[in-house]
Each structure stands twice: as structure tokens, then as C-alpha cells.
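Run HTH araC/xylS-type domain-containing protein through structure prediction, thanks.
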Amino acid sequence: MVRVPHELVKSPNKKGSLKLDGMSVIEFCFYTQGIKGSFFLQDHLLLIVKSGVYTIRFGDREYKIRSNEMMFIHKSTGVEYEKTGEPDSDYILDYTMFFLNEKIVDEFLKFAGLKPIYLVNDVVPITVFPINDRIGSYIESLKPFFENSDEVKEGLVRVKLMELLFHIADSNDRLLHQMMQPISKERGSIAKIMEENFMNPVSLNDLAYLSGRSLAAFKRDFQAIYNTSPLKWVRNRRLDKAKELLAETVLSVTDVCFSTGFENIAHFSKVFKERFGLPPSEFRRQLRLKEDA
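Sure, done. The structure for HTH araC/xylS-type domain-containing protein is below.
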């Protein structure tokens, strides 16, 4: 699982991107079917599908965004995705992603003369809406910018984001309100947050934020619950999951390594051996020998 927009999925089919403050904030993509993956959002994401099908899985819920629909995903959310197309359109998927951080939203509110509206317990992680003619025309207006994206000045990118938010405000005030809502600052269950995110590329600051605590309070409360540090707990939980995958699936050691959140094969093999007494390949080999005996 990658962190976006900091680590956007690389693909030779990507058509272009526009940047602001050095970060990709608008992505125009054109894919065929069969691409799957996952990501953890550090900023709000607005995904607009012009044609095709973009599937998002969040927990036990599945959302399908089809032609002329858009989806809002709140920041600090981890999801799985699958990119496909309609059978009668050569499986083409044409979509645009907008990464909207709090700074952009705040700039828009000041520029538009709007005041933030905070709705208690009204954060919806994922919402799907139809797009209207104005937003459809706006998407078309972006296409020329992608042809020479490196030459587009950041000031113009900022203006285009402001334009998008004006269209959103005029056509769907509920969506705008969702962008204003912070994640609940109530002291969430540390156990639940850790189980949901231990394989995601989240930092301690991310976990503290999700729990509604300061970093110091998060570390203190975590130590009281688990009698260990968050980093050690995450590593051991990932190793337990890796052991499970090695025993119960045919995934390669490399795939197990990366799917459980480790970023280096050598490091993964080293810590796996320290925990279980055998490197991953040997552990699987010995397990197969016992099963065949």
C-alpha cells in the first residue's frame, strides 16, 4: 500500500499530472482493465470517472464509480482499488484525480468568503455523487494542460483547483462540508486503529492523529496497553501476518514481504529469522516437508 499523493502509482499509461508546491495535485489517467492495488490517503481525494469503472473497497464495503460519477474519499483513509472498463468500450478507463489538502480547502473558503461548518460525528469516509454538466465541462477544460504539463505554472494550477471547488460548492454543498470535517478527535480505540493500519505505510504521527491523541499521549497509552513500543508491535504483527501468508498461500517470499508492509527483502528475511528461527524460504520449505511426511 502506497501513500498518496506522495507516492503515486507509476504506470506507463499515465497521461499527465499537474503539480502545486512540488506535489501532484491533479492526475489524468487512461488505463485498461486488470490493474489492482491499495493506497493510504494523506489528503482528501476527489475521483471523477469520465468512462469506465473504478472500484474502491473500504473494509467490507465496495463502491463502483462508473461513467460520469465522482467519489470523495476523506483523508487518512486506506482503501483497495481495481481499475476496469465497460465491456462495450474496449475496457477503457478515463478518470481524473484531485488531491485536496487542508491548505487548499482553507484557501478556497477564504477566497469564496465561506465559513467552515463542522458537523459533529458527520465524517463519511467515502461518498459517491453524479457529476453535472458544469463539472463535466470543467474536466474537459483540463485536457490541454496535460499535453504540456511541465510548462503549466503553479499559479494556474491553484486557480483551476479553486474553480473546481466553486463548482462543487454550487452543485453539492454536502460534499464541500465533508471536505471541511476533521477526523473525529475523540479518543479512538488504539487496538482497532492498529489492527486496521498495521500493514499500511503509516507513520506514528498518522496513527496518533487517527486515535485523536498527541504523539506523546499515543505512545504513553500504547505502552500501557501493549507493554511495548508501537514500532516493535507493528513489526511483530507484520511478521505474524507474513508467517501466516507463507504457510497458507503460494505467494512468493518477495510478494509476502511487500504485501505485509516491509520495504526491503534482506531486512524482512533478517527480522523473520530473528523472530521464528528460520529465514522465510526455509520456514516454508520445512513446513512443506512436515505436511508431506
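The CA atoms of residues 85 and 91 lie 4 Å apart.
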